[in-house]
Specification:
With 441 residues, the protein is mainly alpha-helical. It has 18 helices and 6 strands. A hairpin with a 2-residue loop joins strand 1 and strand 2 (12-21). Helix 4 packs antiparallel against helix 5 and helix 8 runs antiparallel to helix 9 (226-236).
């Protein structure tokens, strides 16, 4: 057993830890630290002695405690023979920019789009800490301040606002975790300062928007050519990811006689399916694929044979088409087309089938794609046809909702009844008849 003693050693006041190893009494001078920290030293040293005598590795708790020690404190233990000395590279002064660049250059296994997300996270770290900041000097409290800065001032792309969306903040934080987790594994740092920061991307329901089929038809009517009509139909009626899946679709993948198409998804290539799935050619989509096939030149390979360069911006042209159709651009233009289609299909077919057609899992579909719609709400409150006929003929229908309160209770309910029409969250009135809206709210 080890023991602690607070003493004055040659003018120095502090704690001394005494223990016994290999049948010999030994001691460690801990210095002027709190009693709580001295007690932690005692517990972990006792455990290290037991491990040495039993030939066992230290526990995870002691391992974490050791990794959080300063080089000077760790040297006390290594000089006493309780632990192995830290490797020399652990004392390297590695700058933030140099380490991030090294990490990114070594990730030859990732796609170009993933590399870009690493580079964006690297730029955010360097913008806040500076390129020459040693990675060993970044502490957990520094990481927390960086994340707050990222959320409030980290937007460098949009001139109209400095704040960054929560989902983007989480993605940047996740990449920072990866940078520093690798540095920790290589012994360049003692702890990952970003380890406890939230990075799991959650659904942002505020940016979900159901795009009615009538709206996309108006966009198709004013689209400049057959290519854009096909793009919009595949995105809205086929639910394809745009641009990745849409631009990879070849005519050899489209089987019009059998009503199916083979989709190659870059996003899910690492899955067991290899990112390949079968998707029905839905009735709403078929006319546009047939028109595209008729217009395709002899020997055409891709369904969309334009906009194949890396610098092409489909969003800008799509916004122009939306405005020409008399509509206002909605959030996440392309993703909400896919989400709207998945929402429609889930109302008609089993969720597992729909998820397999559109290339995601049921939990992901429910969290990030499926939406509650006003149309479903309207259908839920519609009066059944039999009840409507009974009311028209003057017969009181016997339904669970047909009982009417009377007397004082009825008067009380009349006084507390809400005034004015019931409204949906989008501002539309709940009633028996619905006017066609010519523009989105």
């Amino acid at each position: 057993m080890a023991s602690l003693r607070n003493e004055n050693d040659r003018g120095r006041t502090g704690w001394r830890l005494q223990y016994r190893l290999n049948r010999r009494n030994k001691s460690l001078w801990l210095g002027n630290i709190s009693e709580g920290k001295a007690t932690d030293w005692k517990a972990h040293v006792e455990h290290l002695v037991e491990c040495m005598e039993g030939g066992d590795p230290p526990s995870k708790a002691t391992g974490r405690w050791l990794s959080g020690l300063s080089d000077a404190d760790h040297k006390k233990l290594s000089d006493a023979g309780l632990v192995e000395p830290r490797v020399e590279r652990n004392r390297q002064v590695v700058s933030l920019a140099a380490w991030c660049d090294t990490f990114i250059s070594e990730r030859s296994d990732v796609k170009g789009s993933t590399r870009q997300t690493y580079e964006k996270a690297r730029d955010c770290l360097v913008a806040h800490f500076g390129a020459s900041k040693p990675i060993r000097e970044i502490r957990p409290e520094d990481a927390k301040r960086w994340r707050i800065w990222l959320a409030t001032e980290g937007n460098r792309r949009d001139k109209n606002r400095s704040t960054m969306a929560d989902a983007t903040v989480r993605r940047r934080t996740g990449k920072a975790k990866q940078f520093f987790a690798e540095a920790l594994e290589r012994g360049l740092i003692d702890q990952n300062p970003f380890a406890k920061l939230p990075s799991h991307v959650t659904a942002n329901t505020a940016r979900q928007f159901f795009v009615p089929a009538a709206w996309i038809e108006r966009c198709i009517e004013v689209a400049p050519d057959v290519t854009w009509r096909t793009i919009l139909a595949l995105a809205r009626y086929g639910g394809l990811r745009c641009p990745s899946e849409l631009l990879r679709l070849k005519w050899c993948d489209v089987n019009l006689p059998e009503g199916r198409m083979t989709i190659h998804a870059s996003k899910t290539e690492h899955h067991g399916s290899g990112g390949i799935r079968q998707c029905p050619i839905f009735p709403e989509l078929r006319p546009y694929l047939e028109a595209a096939w008729d217009a395709a030149p002899e020997g055409a390979v891709y369904v969309i044979d334009r906009y194949r360069g890396t610098g092409v911006n489909l969003r800008t042209r799509f916004e122009t088409i939306i405005k020409a159709a008399g509509l206002v651009p909605w959030p996440k233009l392309m993703q909400n087309l896919r989400a709207s289609r998945e929402t429609e299909l889930m109302a008609k077919f089993p969720a597992k089938d729909v998820a397999s057609w559109l290339g995601n899992s049921v939990p992901v579909a429910m969290a990030h794609y499926a939406m509650a719609t006003a149309e479903s709400f309207r259908q839920a409150i519609e009066i059944p046809a039999a009840v409507a006929v009974a009311v028209a003929s003057g017969v009181q229908p016997q339904t669970p909702c047909s009982h009417q309160p009377s007397g004082e209770k009825a008067k009380s309910q009349q006084k507390t009844a809400p005034r004015g029409p019931l409204m949906f969250s989008d501002g539309s009135e709940i009633s028996g008849k619905w006017a066609i809206q010519n523009s989105n709210l």
